[in-house]
């Protein structure tokens, strides 16, 4: 086979693969757009899409609305660097005075620590030492620790933990994240529901 033929075959294969990637990327972007817009319409919230000027890079999606007087946003953001770089879906519920101080995980990560906390028997109160082992003592307020002594709140926090990669309560905002971008409105519903339920419980607790 002559060098010219080999080069043409290589170029043809490259064009085919590039075209296939563009097709898959456009289908993925369409699925995301349809899921997010459908989800927003169900709640009478506003959906926007900001196209990335660079080719084969995803758009930024954002949903904004209000629930019981609280502003809520749901958007895509980029997390990490290098091989750890990934898209995340971030929900923020602005609770204002309904938020009891702050509840921030310790630096070693929320997952293992919070699971250890919820394995403790509910029949006894958690000690300050146990609470400090789970959450950052410098960024978690006494009001935030009080939530963990409430069995009903612990259950809601556990539910939120089960469907998120990270969540915290700080500066009057409840933030929850997952390490992907849903392409199904039902998945978005399942992600946002525990956030709204915890927000409603905090409202009721303050009333």
Overview of the structural elements:
- By secondary structure, the chain is of the alpha+beta class.
- It has one domain (3-206).
- It contains six helices and six strands.
- Helix 1 (3-43) runs parallel beside helix 6.
- It is globular and about 70 Å long.
Shape: globular
Sheet/helix structural class: alpha+beta
Quantity of strands, as a count? 6
**How many domains make up the 3D coordinates?**
1
Q: Please tally the helical runs, counting DSSP H or I stretches of 4 or more residues.
A: 6
Main beta-sheet annotation = 6 strands, antiparallel
Briefly characterize the structure.
This protein is an alpha+beta fold and 207 residues long.
What is the element layout, followed by pairings?
Blueprint: H1 3-43, E1 46-50, E2 60-67, E3 70-79, E4 86-94, H2 110-119, H3 128-134, H4 142-148, H5 151-162, E5 166-170, E6 173-178, H6 185-206
Antiparallel strand pairs: 1-2, 2-3, 3-4, 4-6, 5-6
Helix pairs in contact: 1-6, 2-3, 2-5, 5-6
Protein name: Secreted protein
Organism: Pyxidicoccus parkwayensis
Transmembrane segments: 6-25
Give the key terms:
alpha+beta; 6 helices; globular; membrane; 207 residues; 6 strands; single chain; transmembrane
């Amino acid at each position: 086979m002559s060098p010219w033929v080999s080069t043409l075959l290589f170029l043809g294969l490259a064009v085919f693969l590039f075209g296939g990637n563009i097709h898959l990327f456009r289908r993925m972007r369409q699925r995301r757009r349809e899921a997010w817009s459908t989800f927003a319409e169900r709640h009478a919230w506003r959906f926007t899409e900001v196209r990335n000027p660079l080719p084969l890079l995803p758009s930024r999606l954002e949903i904004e609305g209000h629930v019981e007087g609280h502003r809520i946003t749901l958007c895509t953001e980029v997390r990490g660097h290098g091989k750890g770089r990934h898209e995340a879906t971030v929900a923020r519920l602005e609770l204002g005075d309904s938020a009891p101080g702050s509840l921030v995980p310790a630096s070693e990560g929320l997952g293992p620590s919070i699971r250890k906390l919820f394995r403790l028997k509910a029949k006894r109160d958690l000690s300050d030492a146990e609470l400090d082992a789970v959450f950052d003592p410098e960024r978690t307020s006494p009001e935030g620790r009080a939530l963990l002594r409430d069995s009903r709140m612990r259950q809601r926090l556990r539910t939120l933990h089960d469907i998120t990669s990270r969540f915290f309560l700080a500066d009057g905002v409840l933030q929850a994240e997952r390490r992907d971008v849903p392409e199904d409105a039902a998945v978005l519903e399942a992600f946002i529901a525990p956030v709204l339920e915890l927000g409603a419980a905090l409202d009721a607790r303050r009333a």
